[in-house]
Design goal:
With 87 residues, the chain is an alpha+beta fold. A hairpin with a 2-residue loop joins strand 3 and strand 4. The N terminus is likely disordered.
Length: 87
């Protein structure tokens, strides 16, 4: 995934790579029995960034939000918040 942040950090500023990767989902998968709701989801969200998930009914928007919120455990993958694994 390409970051919108480039260049080096100024004095007293956090590293742009750290800011760009505040919330990271790496290879998230969530199954409900034989139904796969999420498959290999990779996402990076910067701190303070506003994100919107759009798609048709049944595409996994709510499941993805529930995984991010900690209401569902992913079956595989990593969920990192500021570098700490939450999954």
């Amino acid at each position: 995934m390409t970051s919108a942040f480039a260049g080096s950090a100024g004095a007293g500023q956090p590293d742009a790579d750290v800011v760009a990767r505040y919330l990271r989902l790496i290879g998230i998968r969530k199954d409900f029995g034989a139904f796969t709701a999420l498959s290999n989801i990779d996402l990076e969200i910067a701190k303070g960034e506003f994100v919107c998930f759009l798609g048709p009914s049944g595409c996994g928007k709510t499941t993805l939000l529930r995984v991010i919120a900690g209401l569902e455990r992913p079956d595989s993958g990593a969920l990192l918040l500021d570098g700490k694994d939450l999954a």
